[in-house]
Amino acid sequence: MKTVLEKKTHEIEIKNSRFITILYPITEQTNILNIIEDTKKLYPKANHYCFAYLTDTKQKSSDDGEPSGTAGIPMLNVLIKEKLINTLAITIRYFGGIKLGAGGLVRAYTKSVKEALTVSQIIEVEKGYHINITIPYSEQKNLDYLLKDSQIINKNYQEAVNYEVLINKKLLPSLKNYTYKITSEEYIRALKD
Can you tell me the distance from the alpha carbon of 13 to that of 98, in angstroms, rounded to the nearest whole number? Predict the structure, then answer.
């Protein structure tokens, strides 16, 4: 599976209408509605704010006032065809005065997302774990070495060292000597073999 590495914006114009697509990496916990509301504030005079997203357990799309099935579903279909996960696409449309028709809208929203993907960095992801590990200070160097290819979210120094980290599933057996708690299972950046 794949996802976008970071937020990316791309704009195209079709028959005087502007289509601005913003791609976001998301997780199951991302508040999609907040992102859409923030987008509306950034582009306050747009006519439509169509979106599509998918995660491991959810997928949803919206035509936001465009004729049914002409925006959200075509956008979602692009994400599915590209085998993306944990990705949100929002396409903002400023109507240019020329009606595109149902087929024209499907092609325009599809093209807008496809082109946004071509300017985005796509990364491989795989199932992994979001974990918390607590270790004595004397073990920090060893653990840092084990986690060298993992994404350390936070390190907290108290009586012991507390790590919050995203790890590859293959790494879990290597942590058997440490006290850890799995917070969730989720998609993380794939490690290169």
Answer: 12
Other CB atoms within 10 A of residue 134 CB: 16
Mean pLDDT of 86-103: 97
Whether the per-residue pLDDT at 141 is higher than 50: the answer is yes
Q: Give 38-43's long-range contacts (Cβ < 8 A, gap of 24+).
A: 39/90, 39/92, 43/92, 43/94
What is the mean predicted confidence (pLDDT) over 3-26?
97
Q: How far apart are CA 68 and CA 31, in angstroms?
A: 24
Which pTM was predicted? 0.83
Going 121 to 126 to 131 to 137, the CA torsion angle's sign is negative
Three-class DSSP category at 124: strand
